[in-house]
Amino acid sequence: MDLDTFFVSCERLTDRRLEGKPILIGGVSDRGVVASCSYEARKFGIHSAMPMKLARQLCPEAIVIKGNASTYSKKSEEVTEIIREWVPLFEKTSIDEFYIDLSGMDRFFNGFKLASELREKIIDGTGLPISFGLSENKTVSKVATGEAKPNNKLKVDHGFEKIFLSPLAVNKIPMVGEKTYQSLRDLGIRKIMTIQQMPVELMEKVFGKNGVTIWEKANGIDRSPVVPYSERKSISTERTFDRDTIDVIKLKGILLAMTENLAFQLRRGQKLTSCVTVKVRYSDFNTHTLQSRIPYTSADHMLIPTVLNLFNRLYNKRLLVRLIGVRFSHLVNGGYQINLFEDATEMINLYQAMDKVRDKYGDRTVMRAAGIEAKTISRFNPFKGEPPPLLPNRRM
Question: What are phi and psi of 187, to 5 degrees?
Answer without folding.
Answer: -90, 0
